[in-house]
Amino acid sequence: MTEEARPWLVTGLGNPGKEYARHRHNVGFMVADLLAERIGARFGRHRRAVAEVAEGRLGLGGPRLVLAKPLTYMNLSGGPVAALAQFYKVAPAQVIAVHDELDIPYGQLRAKCGGGEGGHNGLRSMSRSLGTKDYVRVRFGIGRPPGRQDPADYVLSDFSAVERKELEFLVDRAADVVEAVVTRGLEWAQNTYHSG
User: Fold this and answer.
1) Domain segments of the chain: what residues?
2) Which residues, 6 or more positions from 115, have their beta carbon under 8 angstroms from its beta carbon?
């Protein structure tokens, strides 16, 4: 399979189950759902990985996307991602993880390749399972918890009423960042979407 023919594997990180659906930690799932809508694809269980997968193309004859939502909990996301990367013959450089990021203020998005995991268990699991940190991350800023709230409790809680006013717009913008990385490259996406 030529490099151009290989799909991009876009993994939204989150926790399965209705009780987690609107949590800050599940913003990766929200972006994956929107991307699936954009390419007219539906999620279904994958036969080789513990994940829901949707496949399609970005535009007519555009790049192939494999969208994934691991059905393990966040800490074990790497196993399904590595299984899908192997199944679709996707190199780590064409894997994109979309995830919440405590170290970025709410409302800001960042794209990067490689680097540390910043204590994010989903990324840590992915790096371990893929055997490298050199995959793309689209980081959705959720900011630090207020006061002395435990970060673990913070990420497993819903967005505030104020945050929810902007959430739909930001999820839409994060999906734009993913599309930009795939179609225009990481550097172009960084130059266009990094703000603040």
Assistant:
1) 8-193
2) 133, 137
